[in-house]
Amino acid sequence: MMQIKPILAALKRHKAGTILIALQIALTLAIVCNALFIIQQRVDRLSRPTGMIETDLMAIQNRWVGIDDEATAPLVKADIQILRSLPGVEDAVSTNSFPLRGGGWSMGVRLNPTAKKPITQTTLYFVDDHALPTMGAKLIAGRNFRADEVVTIDPKVFESSPVVIITKALADKVFPDGSALGKQIYITEGAPSSTVIGIVERLQVPWNGNFANKFEGNSTLLPIQLSGNFSAYLIRSKPGQLASVLKAAPAALFKANRMRVIPSERGVRTYADVREQAYKSDRGMAILMGIICVVLLAITAAGIVGLTSFWVGQRRKQIGVRRALGATKHDILSYFLTENLLIGIGGVVVGAMLAVGMNLWLMQQFEMARLSPVYVIAGVIVLLLLGQGAVLAPAMRAARVSPVEATRSV
Amino acid sequence: MFVHYAQLGLLSLRRNPLLTALMIMSIAFGVAASMVTYAVFRAVSGDPIPQKSAHLFAPQVDNWGPQYNRKGEPASAMTYTDAMALMHAHKAKRQTVLFQVLMSVMPTQGSGLPFKSAGYATYGDFFSMFDVPFQYGQGWNAQDDDNRAAVAVISRDLNQKLFGGANSVGREIELEEQTYRIVGVTEHWDPKPRFFDMFNGNAYTDASEVYIPFTHAIDLKMDTGGNNSCSGVGNRGVGWDGWIRGECVWISPWVELDSKADADEYLQFLHAYAQEQQRAGRFSWAPNVRLRDVNAWLEFQHAVPPESRLSLTVALGFFVICLVNTIGLLLAKFMRRAPEIGIRRALGASRADIYRQFLAEAGMVGLAGGVLGLFLTGLGMAGAGMVFEPQIARLAHLDMSLVALTLLVAIGATVLAAFYPTWRAAQVQPAWQLKSN
Q1: Cα–Cα distance between A129 and A146 in angstroms, integer?
Q2: Where is each MacB-like periplasmic core domain found (chain A) (predicted)?
């Protein structure tokens, strides 16, 4: 530590190199902090549970061809009967949408039917009494729908349902005191109320974009089968039989009725595929940021090795003189380590400011969250350690310089 | 002389292979990361219809009011009521409104399964407004619009599927159980982003295959195959009539206007229309209208996905670090040769000679970095599908202009980075170096 003054004096003579290393450390810190933060945000997002048991689950999206929208209800009913009776199928349900599907129906929830502003948003899943067992969603209060509560409705005239099951997230939002069960809510302005008969632990909405972040756990299940051109089927296979059901289910549907389109893309998917496709860009972004972090750190380390090696080469004579005057190998080693630490500290101070500045800019441009200081601190430690590690090899080479060098003229 | 410097450079680069490799990799990684992300960015931020983008406008009328609209902006689509008012007013040179339709197509021959085709219900002006190229026939005319005729324009791909690519104009096609007469077959036409249908999130989806008259679709009470947004207004209204008379938006309007004066005049018209609605008691707020041309519209609709801008930003930052790194390494490399520089200067080389020699050396590093970078860019393009949506990733190509740009940026940036180290090298005092030797 006593060496700091001479080190500073020496650094003054290498202003350009010093500034370049410090600048590189600063920029690297700024980018690595923000990249790590982006990775963490994306990983957080893609590891959110849907609230369903996702193994042995698959989805089929079906469109009817040449059939009046009002006349599809019996066909859907027939489809569901076929699916439920297939060997290997545990249960199946017809719904308008499902978590991570991408498209769905959302409404505002009100306690006062004439309130202008709803309390919050919810997605509507139009299902029947088989939804909970098929999805594997956990009912934590109340009861499931009864078969006799299920009705068919034309989506164009839908207003509300006498009974609904809602998620805990929605229940807590609308009834913060935890008294949702048995209460009335309004899902359409001015329409009749719905009684909450059950609460499920969790069920994600169909969307995973930023716009849905505020209500990503707010789902409402209704005992209604919508008539119309489109229907989605969720199918739970018996354990381990998903692969065979994946083939058998669409075949059985086409055998029963050919007047349908099940698109080749995204028509028949395991739920694992649904999840992968929904979070593709999140995972991709995390991977890209990861690669950039690793390459950046490698390049910065290599740059430090390169410049320090040059300095060691340049100062062989001075090192020899110091050794001849009694400096130990350890003194030389610690000289270069301390020098690097000083440059590193300069770099990370500027870098921390840059990291925060870059985050502010990203927040403004890309609706990112505020960078947690943990990332800056972690980044600072990583870069200082990286610097010390990178300088170790050239510093050790310097320490091996023999005192005889002092006497050589070249 | 340049060849001589290049040889000297090569010799010097070979002397410290590690340092040289480090510089080359640094440049290569930096330039490759920038190029891959730039290629994607270029693909999504391009002008989809450059010859006309300044003359095509998307009008907007706020029918939701300050309570329900988003941050004061009118909805991104229109109600049936407003769309029809614009069509009937006929204030622009050309105008169309459109909504997405998703229709089942019956195969013409054999027992093939029916399939779904996506397209648009629109007006005949659509084809001339958007410069749709035709393989056979042409779009329908205003008369067909007025007669609510059962005519259709299909795409080259659909024509291939149904008629084996033969001229199908005049033949019939069965869509949703209805028979249409084909009047035109388009060439492959798929502007990216699909500026005229941003409302349905269709900026980068597959090309549309079929077009039918809007008036006919309305007669059939055809439901939109795209989005329908009712905002805080709540429900759709009861039945078909309730829906199209209600305040839900689902129709995208477009007008073609030749000059700035025409555009101003049209904006005036929109304003007057909104005022009239206010007087009639439908709007309880002051007129809030917009008229955006294609590029302004794309910006407003965030056509460039945030992933693309974010990754381009990070990649450029990455490139800057790589350049800083290169400056440092070049500085080390050049200054180590101070004795050599001293001798050359003493033997009569001018400062300019030193500049030329070292910049040539840097140029070679840049070239090598560029070539390696090109390879990495190719690799990155193949992997772009992992980061971006596949439909966006496949828009990015490694074409000749990108190859040239990669090499140019690599060499240019390296030479630029070399200026400071070279300047330092040229400052070397020959006497000082000779003395200490």
Answers
A1: 6
A2: 43-240
Find chain A residues with C-beta within 8 A of B104's C-beta. Answer: 63, 65-66, 261
Within-domain flag for B418? yes
Report H helices in A201-328. Answer: 242-256, 271-278, 280-314, 316-324
Look at chain A and count its residues. 410
CA distance A63 to A53: 26
Say if residue B27 is in the same domain as residue B112: no
Q: Residue B235: what pLDDT?
A: 61
Strand partners, B357: none
The residue-averaged pLDDT of B169-198 equals 91
Question: Two tokens at B268?
Answer: 């005036």
Q: Which of B27, B115, B325, B337 to mutate to test the interface with A (most CBs of A within 10 A)?
A: B325
Which residues of chain A have a CB within 8 Å of the CB of B315?
292
Rounded-to-integer distance, Cα B127 and Cα A16, Å: 62
How many independent structural domains does chain B possess?
2
| The pLDDT value given to residue B437 | 47
pLDDT of B9: 75
Q: Rounded to whole angstroms, how far apart are CA atoms B301 and B55?
A: 18
Residue A189: name the closest of B228, B73, B68 by CA.
B68
Per the CB < 8 Å rule, is B329 touching A307?
Answer: yes
Q: A83-117 b/e with 16+ CB inside 10 Å = b? A: beebebbbbbbbbbbbbbbeebbbbbbbeeeeeee
Question: How wide is the angle at C-alpha A44 spanned by C-alphas A38 and A48, nearest 5°?
Answer: 150
Let me know whether B42 and B102 are in one domain: no
Domain that holds residue B325: 2-47+305-436
Pick out chain A residues at pLDDT < 50: 410
Interface probe for B, chosen from A120, A153, A310 (most Cβ of B below 10 Å), is A310
B159 domain residue, yes or no: yes
Q: What integer is the mean pLDDT of B287-304?
A: 91
Give pLDDT tens digits for A135-190: 999 999 999 999 999 999 988 788 889 999 999 999 999 999 988 999 999 988 77
ipTM of the modeled complex: 0.79
Residue B365 lies in a domain: yes
DSSP B345-360: HHTT--HHHHHHHHHH
Alpha carbon of A239: minimum distance to chain B alpha carbons (Å) = 31
